[in-house]
Amino acid sequence: MRTILLAFLVLASACDPEVGSLAECAPVAAGATIDDTVPPIVDADLQGWLASASYVAYLPESAAHPSAGPHGGSVRTFVNRALAGSLGTCATSHPVGAAAVKELHGDAGLRGWAVMVKTRPAAGAASWYWYEVFDTAPGATPAFSGQGDDTCTGCHDGGLDAIRTAWPLG
Ligand code: HEC
Questions:
Q1: How far apart are CA 128 and CA 119, in angstroms?
Q2: Where do the domains of the chain lie?
């Protein structure tokens, strides 16, 4: 009986693999300090914020790895506290203010960023602000930006409220 109960608990805590790419509901380690700053969503302000590496106290992937999507080269994702907490409970909708910053690395090092910021309560890629830039200068302009940018939404709607990176972060 105990074994059956344990098996049920393990199954019940696993995420539905159809919903997103979460391997399990692994909460953020107690006592972990993760910055909860929300990136600015005005392009010029965001580019300066990124160029100052303002996201480095977010929860990071341990290292850059090849992108499974069209982002090119290798990538390393950082998530703020609101998003980490939400991913850690397998939430199917992340809170407004949840944010992910993805570093884009090429042969010559850091070459830009892809960013998502949740701006509206409803689940789905249309509720996020999207930004991607292939230049690290503080004054550079993005290749893509905007609320619900449809360059980004079709593919990201396959994720868990638009998040495609596997959780827990690798
Ligand atoms: C054809 C699919 C596809 C498209 C289009 C796409 N992405 Fe992604 N994106 C991915 C995948 C897959 C990942 C997971 C990490 C990886 O392998 O790069 C990802 C990860 C991310 C992440 C890290 C957080 C997360 O969701 O995992 C951000 C931020 C991001 N993308 C932003 C963008 C932006 C901005 C655009 C549009 C300019 C965009 N993406 C378009 C496939 C896509």
A1: 5
A2: 36-156
